[in-house]
Specification:
Layout lengths: L1 H44 L17 H7 L2 H33 L5 H13 L2 H11 L6 H8 L14 H26 L3 H10 L5 H11 L1 H16 L3 H6 L11 H11 L3 H26 L7
């Protein structure tokens, strides 16, 4: 009896496994076709000299990567991308946290301000970029008019080598701060209220002390998620650069995705563009690895 029962249980578990495989197979196949397949194809293309439209190609090994190492434009775009990611991450996370703390303290009007600061996230980035182009216009732009009214000197922000990348960073911070704000508000809502009540009993003064000892440590998980997501979004900057500066002037605002686009679809050096894409994917993966190996260990989960 026990033997037949074990056989029945084994068959039942085997059937469950088959059902699980069958139900997950469509998602697994789509993941291969839409994610792993293109990545593998890109890596193979990076080892060839294929150009868009060519009927044949040759295997050239790592020569595309050697060309990237010796390409000053690649290093310039990599440097600009790193600066952009660092500035936008710091600015949008800091501003998002500040807005969340301020809105969370309001007794009324929270919904209005959440909606107001979240509007840049919901709006089309291309449309908002065109608005920023008018705001930054050297002659009739609102920013230069305000500077003139305050006694300052107007500037051609998007055509100035010293200010083009900074202007793009400001737009990136403006665009991502609202999303980070909403996530921080969710994190603040999840903090138990009795901890602040205990702080009152223990005599912990309101303000920075409570933020340091209670709020900030308990925001660790959501902050980690925001850091990773903001970094990945910042690495993907393309639309604003393509519309506003096209990487100029003198490559002062050239970013990695724009370089990949130019190499692949303007100069038709598809193999070289694939090599740059592999470098880009490696950077994004490194962000995830750093998050898993280092940052996550310092986060306290309640």
């Amino acid at each position: 009896m026990n033997f037949h029962r074990r056989i029945s249980i084994a068959r039942y578990r085997y059937g469950e496994q088959l059902w699980g495989i069958g139900l997950s197979a469509p998602a697994f196949i789509l993941m291969i076709l839409l994610m792993l397949g293109p990545i593998a194809l890109t890596m193979l293309l990076s080892l060839t000299d294929w150009q868009l439209g060519m009927g044949n190609f040759s295997w050239i090994g790592l020569k595309n990567y050697e060309s990237a190492v010796n390409d000053p434009i690649f290093w310039k775009s990599l440097f600009n991308t790193s600066v952009y990611v660092a500035v936008v991450m710091t600015g949008s996370i800091g501003l998002g946290l500040l807005l969340a703390l301020m809105i969370n303290q309001l007794s009324f009007g929270k919904g209005f301000y959440r909606t107001l600061f979240f509007l840049p996230v919901m709006a089309s980035l291309v449309a908002m970029t065109i608005v920023w182009e008018f705001l930054l216009h050297p002659e009739f732009g609102l920013i230069n008019q305000l500077l003139t009214a305050l006694g300052g000197t107007p500037n051609n922000w998007l055509r100035d080598e010293d200010w083009a990348l900074a202007a793009l960073c400001v737009i990136g911070i403006w665009h991502q701060a609202g999303f980070n704000m909403v996530l921080f508000i969710a994190g603040l809502t999840a903090i138990p209220k009795f901890l602040y009540e205990a702080a009152d009993i223990d005599g912990v003064p309101p303000g920075f002390s409570r933020f340091r000892h209670i709020t900030w440590p308990l925001l660790g998980p959501v902050t980690l998620f925001i850091v990773v997501m903001t970094a990945i979004k910042a690495f993907q900057v393309f639309d604003t650069v393509q519309i506003l500066t096209q990487g100029g002037p003198s490559y002062s605002s050239e970013v990695l995705l724009l370089t990949i686009y130019k190499e692949g679809f303007e100069y038709f050096r598809t193999g070289y563009a694939a090599a740059l894409t592999v470098v880009f994917l490696t950077l994004v993966i490194l962000v995830t690895v750093v998050k898993s190996l280092f940052l996550e260990k310092k986060v306290k989960y309640t």
